[in-house]
Amino acid sequence: MTPRVLLLYYSYTNQTRRVADAMAEVFVAEGCEVTRLELTLSDQRFSLELPLQPFWRRILKFVVPQLLGQTAEIKFDEQLLDAEYDLVCIGSPTWWFYPAVPITSFLKLPAASKVLRGSRFAVFTVCRAFWWVNYRTVRRLATRAGGSFADSATFAFHGNQVQSMLSFLNYLQSGENRERFMGCRIYAFGVPDEGIEKAKSFARTLASSQLGHNSN
Predict the structure, then answer these.
(1) For the CA atoms of the chain, what is the radius of gyration?
(2) What pLDDT, in 10s, does the model give residues 88-134?
(3) Which domains does the chain have, with CATH numbers?
(4) Could you write out the DSSP letters of every residue in the chain?
């Protein structure tokens, strides 16, 4: 039978979506049936349209709930949870060390158990520099929901924590991928091309190790 893969993720700045796209491309090439479940943040407490202006007032509105571990209202296609999947790949952006609020919110819902109970899952985290707390939290919550951990991968931006922070702040303030911020030359925002190639390699590994497909 054709292996079925669910890509479950949230993407604010499109970077986690880019990784999911690359993985989906490989899974399809490996003969898998791929379903995407992208979460939408619908909570009125959050206003995340880019660019964020006034910047600090709007960013604090979601940083504080994030750091306090609060959940939020989210939307997703519940019909996609009715199918059985051979592998669930959970994609989580890193927001201030932790999983993005929509990911945490989903994994604490009964819906998470519906799709994860008895299923294998992989975690892919997208980050600027620090990813460990994000990964560990997603793995713990998904396991609590009944899933069986299979593998993980991390896709990081260019630069260290300070360098990537400048790129991040620039992107949120302007909504554009600029070369300079506050007079300083900065790295391009987002997962670099080599990270996208790594995502494809990760999907091939999962197809081989978890779904029994061997790449030619």
Answers:
(1) 17
(2) 999 999 988 899 999 999 999 999 999 999 999 999 999 887 889 99
(3) 4-159+196-209 (3.40.50.360)
(4) ---EEEEEE--SSSHHHHHHHHHHHHHHHTT-EEEEEE-EE--TT---PSS-SSHHHHHHHHHHHHHTT----EE--GGGGGS--SEEEEEEEEETTEE-HHHHHHHTSHHHHHHHTT-EEEEEEEESS--HHHHHHHHHHHHHTT-EEEEEEEEE-SS-HHHHHHHHHHHHHHSS--SEETTEE-PPSS--HHHHHHHHHHHHHHHHHTT-----
